[in-house]
Amino acid sequence: MNNDKLVIGGYEFNSRFILGSGKYSMKLIEAAVKDAGAEIITLAVRRANTKEQESILDYIPEGITLLPNTSGARNAEEAVRIARLARELGCGKFVKIEIMRDSKYLLPDNQETIKATEILAKEGFVVMPYMYPDLNVARDLVNAGAASVMPLASPIGSNKGLATKEFIQILIDEIDLPIIVDAGIGRPSQACEAMEMGAAAIMANTALATAGNIQMMASAFKDAIEAGRKAYLSGLGRVLMRGASASDPLTGFLRD
Amino acid sequence: MENRFFVDSEYLSPETLAKKHRLEADPSFRMNHMEYLPGMEVIESDVCENVMAQMNSYDYSKYTSADVKAALEHDTCSLEDFKALLSPAAEPFLEQMAQRARLETGKHFGNTVYLFTPLYIANYCENYCVYCGFNCYNHIKRMKLSMEQIEKEMNVIADSGMEEILILTGESRGKSDVKYIGEACKLARKYFRMVGLEIYPVNTDEYKYLHECGADYVTVFQETYDTDKYEQLHLLGHKRVWPYRFDAQERALRGGMRGVAFSALLGLSDFRKDALASALHVYYLQRKYPHAEMSLSCPRLRPIINNDKINPLDVHEKQLCQVLCAYRIFLPFVGITVSSRESSEFRNGIVKIAATKVSAGVSTGIGDHESKYTGKETDEVQGDEQFEIDDDRSLDKMYQDMAEEGLQPVLNDYIYV
Fold first, then answer.
1. Does A104 contact B290 at a Cβ distance shorter than 8 Å?
2. Residue pLDDT, tens place only, B145-187
3. Active site amino acids of A
4. Please, what are the domains in chain B?
5. What share of chain B is helix, strand, coil (3-state, %, to 5)?
6. What pTM was computed for the model?
7. Which residue of chain A has the CA closest to B109?
8. How far apart are CA B250 and CA B257, in angstroms?
């Protein structure tokens, strides 16, 4: 397990829990990062682009990788502009592409996401696109230079869990980049299930923000993600789902 | 008890007074409120038809507690569920509605609350809306800020830490034309991260111009969706044209604005029907323009200068809370703004249930930010206020209070792209 690293764009991480930051109090972020054992934290550029009294940047412990996102972008062009602004603000070279032209469900626009990925990857960003789980789109994202693929489990903020489970499994099986399940994970058990399936990491925000005790929930997610990862590495995850074998082997008639 | 809106100022000439009285007493003397005036753009849209069909057929007395319980149990709130939640039958379920609303707010907004402040730059008005302090027959100190004065006001506001501003004017194209408002937007972009507008409705090309000047969000209050009642309350001026006002948000979106805000002024007519129509105005426009950001406000009638008896009638805090919870459950994704018309106690409570945005450091007067923010005496002329506010907390105080309520105050969540 010690050598089990999450590798994104050549960068290694020990934690497989990516924390969102947009929905809860900043003073809790530092504690949540610690309890979650997170090494990557997302940051909405539109929120960071502020002169307000307290900036989220003041609350992020050292050694944590910032993952600025392009929320607010409605097309590839806007996402590219926001990513460049993030770089100017000193947020590093990682970027999570979020492109929505639907204010109700905030579902990602896959086509525009591919376009933005291609442009930003060429500019040297480590691009992590948020997407609706579609195999063809995932392949296009790989070709466009993405460093990971981030399919949604269910609508953002819904805490409904792995509604797109079968399709995420296809991405895990077919795509060679880390598949990071993003959006909709509401419980540690759901995070654990995604990890058992072979997801490379989990991203959560609302699940923590709406918990009674944010720190304790951060810790619960950490444990669940680690448990799921261990289960996956131990080879049990999918074998169990195939059902038990019959006591009389079907191939018993075969001679040596 | 009905509100008594008509007040005669002693400063009006006998001719003006005679005209005012005739407007008030004789409907045939008023222009047709459903007919567009020259220059008003007409757009093809079915949104109004949809909203009005639902509102006109809404009989809230037919809903029972069983309908309300079912609505609260459903995963997604249908239009019928929403109608039940707005009905009198839902009043005993206010706590359950608040619990559900809180959940929905949390899913979409976490525990954040956005802060902004309005800036009135002029209070000249060409309309006679009987409940409004700016109405053309009300004797108040009128004023229009020069660009220098606007910049001074913006400086004072920006110094307080505010990052989002809502620019307002009285509704006078003559005194505050689109160019003047555009110049104010350009100035505002120097000082603020986000600029919204609450001005008289304009045509698509004018919204486009204002968008280019830096405005990105347009608020237009329909006041009431009851067209007959609207006719009796808006007696004179371009605002009298109800359908042109109704289509304002759609024109703003066509003009390139990122977001639009809606509201009825609760207390003018049947508030349940007005609340239904406001939410459906959002609902149908969102289906047509899914990328647009939308928000709802929920102002209640307030006393004005020269008429301190105006009140929101049957819309008490409980009814207002019911409306807001119903909005939240039906439209979980929309922003909900609660203005300083409401008390600090109400606002502290409602941000934990349904509201996502509150104003702070508010003045509805003209050119008085320096004296209000710093206490500095000034000899400069100031314009009178549109209505009396209730919650006069400064930005610092509001920020601190929201944080103490366990919420994360957000001063900017906006990026111009």
1. yes
2. 999 999 999 999 999 889 999 999 999 999 999 999 999 999 9
3. 96
4. 2-410 (3.20.20.70)
5. 45, 15, 40
6. 0.86
7. A23
8. 10
